[in-house]
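Sequence, please.
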C-alpha cells in the first residue's frame, strides 16, 4: 500500500495551469484536457551559503536557466554612496519570514546578511583618501600613516580633499 501511494505522488507534478480555478462568478471550469508540458513547474531550490554550486536547467525553447544551489559571493550596493561591488558573504544574520532560514544559512530576497566590506573600504580610500574602520589614537601616528601611503599628485590630493569636505558619512560606519 505504501509503495503505491509513493508512486502516485511521484507521478503528480507541479502545474502552473489556470484551468483548475473558479470563474469570476464562482463556477468551476470543466477540466477537459490533461496537463501540458508548457504548464509545467519545478520545485523551488533554496540557495544556501557555501562554495559556489550552480546547476543549469533546460527550459522551453532550449533556453537555459541557472539555479544557484550554493553561493559564497554576490554583487552588493552601498546605496548612500551609489557604488556596487562584488563581495564575499560571511553570514546570514536575520530573515523576517523564519529563524530556520537563518539557522540553515539560506539566501533569499530580503535576507539580512553580513558581508566582507574590504572592497568598499578600498573604494572609499581611493575616492576620498579616508581609511574607514581605523580608530583615531594620536596626531603623530596620523602623520606617519600619511607618509607611508602611496605617493599622489597634488591634483589628486586636492580632489580628494574637496570630495571629503562635501562628504557626510554615517557615524556608525
Amino acid at each position: 500500500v505504501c509503495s503505491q501511494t509513493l508512486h502516485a505522488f511521484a507521478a503528480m507534478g507541479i502545474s502552473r495551469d489556470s484551468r483548475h480555478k473558479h470563474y469570476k462568478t464562482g463556477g468551476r471550469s470543466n477540466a477537459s484536457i490533461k496537463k501540458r508540458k508548457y504548464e509545467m513547474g519545478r520545485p523551488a531550490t533554496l540557495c544556501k551559503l557555501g562554495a559556489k554550486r550552480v546547476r543549469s536547467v533546460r527550459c522551453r525553447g532550449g533556453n537555459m536557466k541557472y539555479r544557484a544551489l550554493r553561493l559564497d559571493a554576490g554583487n552588493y550596493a552601498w546605496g548612500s554612496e551609489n557604488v556596487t561591488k562584488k563581495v564575499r558573504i560571511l553570514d546570514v544574520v536575520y530573515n523576517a519570514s523564519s529563524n530556520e532560514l537563518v539557522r540553515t544559512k539560506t539566501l533569499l530576497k530580503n535576507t539580512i546578511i553580513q558581508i566582507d566590506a574590504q572592497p568598499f573600504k578600498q573604494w572609499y580610500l581611493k575616492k576620498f583618501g579616508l581609511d574607514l574602520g581605523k580608530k583615531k589614537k594620536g596626531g603623530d601616528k596620523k602623520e606617519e600613516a600619511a607618509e607611508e601611503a602611496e605617493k599622489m599628485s597634488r591634483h589628486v590630493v586636492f580632489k580628494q580633499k574637496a570630495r571629503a569636505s562635501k562628504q557626510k558619512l554615517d557615524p556608525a560606519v
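The chain is about 30% helix and 25% strand.
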